[in-house]
Structure of CoA transferase:
Amino acid sequence: MSATDVRPPPLTGVRVLDLSRVLAGPWAGQLLADLGADVVKVEKPGAGDDTRAWGPPYLEDASGHNTTEATYFLCANRNKRSVAIDTATSEGQAQVRALAQQADVLLENFKVSGLQRYGLDYASLKEANPRLVYCSITGFGQTGPYAARAGYDFLIQGMGGLMSVTGQPDGEPGAGPQKVGVALTDIMTGLYATIAVQAALAEREKSGLGQHIDLALLDVQIACLANQASNYLAGGMVPRRMGNAHPNIVPYRAFPTADGDIILAVGNDGQFARFCTVAGHPDWSSDERFSSNAQRLANRAVLVPLLRQATVMRSSADWIAALEAAGVPCGPINHIDQVFADPQVIARGLQITLPHTLAGSVPLVANPIRLSGSPVAYRRPPPLLGEHTAEVLAQWLGVQTVA
């Protein structure tokens, strides 16, 4: 496709007022912005989003000195414009209400009813802008006995069952519940919010009306238990921590090698037979204890030690080369520096660099969505606090501020 065939990003023309902070809401705002929306982030003057202070590390300038921008903030605020407005004041509240009248979407993650006292809740704003899609993200939702509680990713990973299936099994070294290494519940909630917003915008094309989206971190975490929830609900089995093992597939886990570890992800009997051939034990695939996945599950405790004895005899590179040639899914366990040095990651362009006012440039992770006709556009780096206040007030409200 030539450059002349490329269309503007799909959400071009959509205005989003982002009152959220930390990760779940900002993640949704960044994704909408990557897809072309004009996302205006409202921040408290002098402080801004909480994550602006979540350092070190901080973004470094060309001389290697720290700027004031925490790297945490950078991960979720690309392509946005920042306006500094104090919503605790009547003047600030009036400005936000005026911006909301011009918006298609509003994102917020205040506590339930937290914006009502400012006249910035959905019921108040829809009177002036009935087409507004208003997305509220909270820990526990707008209803229920926990609605008033504050909710954080770590807390929800525990309450929502994720930590009960993450970590080493009881009785093994290092046993105990373990959170995931990134705030995964926040990220998943941001993704669900993005989907919900786009669905509401599509519905608005039919009805002409916006609506309120009620998203809870706890709801999202439980929805994302996937097969583990189904194992309990339909199978009657309460899942437990299994370390790197899989509850339904064997062998599907990490195995030690002569110089490290690899992941072996055997998804069917044919792949297992090919692995056995590469391992020099073709008899394993015909052994009635291991010939089918159901049998391998039943005899996991017998099979896994046999596999470990085999995998430690060769290096990780040797195993990966041999198994890839045989069509057996496998791979290394990379540190993050190795991730960004991987040739596949480089070929896919997953690290991008944007110009930055303080640092000269800022490295970021690319959006993974690949649209052939209306691709993601990287228009702006994560903004400085209040960087676009005058610009946005002029464009959205026609208000000229004195420099």
